[in-house]
Specification:
By secondary structure, this protein is α/β, with parallel strands linked by helices. It has a single domain, classed as Rossmann fold (3-Layer(aba) Sandwich). Helices cover about 55% and strands about 20% of the residues. Helix 1 links the parallel strand 1 and strand 2. The longest helix has 28 residues.
Length: about 160
């Protein structure tokens, strides 16, 4: 059996949730322990924004303002992710995109030779509608590479804190 791990390119998907930050920490731990290159992607879900305008929940002006807020949030989460990676001596490639998160992640995986996708825990789906609209669930089901889903956020955070 080889000492090599089956992946050298890891991608973590960020969406600003606590579970995606746990996934980020776990991906940093994995990248450090395996010597893999770590990528982080944050996708601003402009598809959902367009749907809100079509459904007349948002007017165009509200969409523009909300999009500006989402871009600020994305940059803040990317900066935080970079600091976490630097604190554990892991190089990180970051990307902020716009569109359908599952499509953008799939495209990134193919374009960059990603061999492992790390996701935060998938929320409990309570309805058929949520199942159809859950981007994380869609990534889990359609990813062109293996997917690791983090669980037990508390133990991930503890492992991350213990690694210096």
């Amino acid at each position: 059996m080889s000492d090599k791990v089956p992946f050298s390119e890891i991608l973590v998907y960020l969406d600003g949730s606590e579970s995606s930050m746990s996934a980020c920490m776990y991906a940093i731990l994995l990248a450090r322990s395996t010597g893999s290159r770590l990528h982080a992607i944050y996708c601003i879900n402009t598809k959902a924004l367009g749907d809100l305008v079509k459904a007349r929940i948002f007017v165009s002006q509200e969409k523009t303002e909300y999009l500006a807020d989402l871009k600020k949030d994305a940059e803040r989460h990317i900066r935080h992710t970079k600091k976490l990676a630097e604190s554990r001596h892991v190089n990180l490639v970051t990307t902020v995109t716009e569109g359908s998160p599952s499509a953008e992640v799939s495209h990134y995986i193919k374009a960059h030779g990603i061999q492992l996708l790390v996701l935060g825990s998938v929320n409990m789906i309570r309805s058929r509608r949520e199942e159809l609209t859950s981007e994380t669930d869609r990534m889990l089901r359609t990813s062109p590479c293996p997917v690791l889903v983090t669980r037990d956020d508390e133990s991930v955070w503890q492992m991350f804190e213990e690694l210096d």
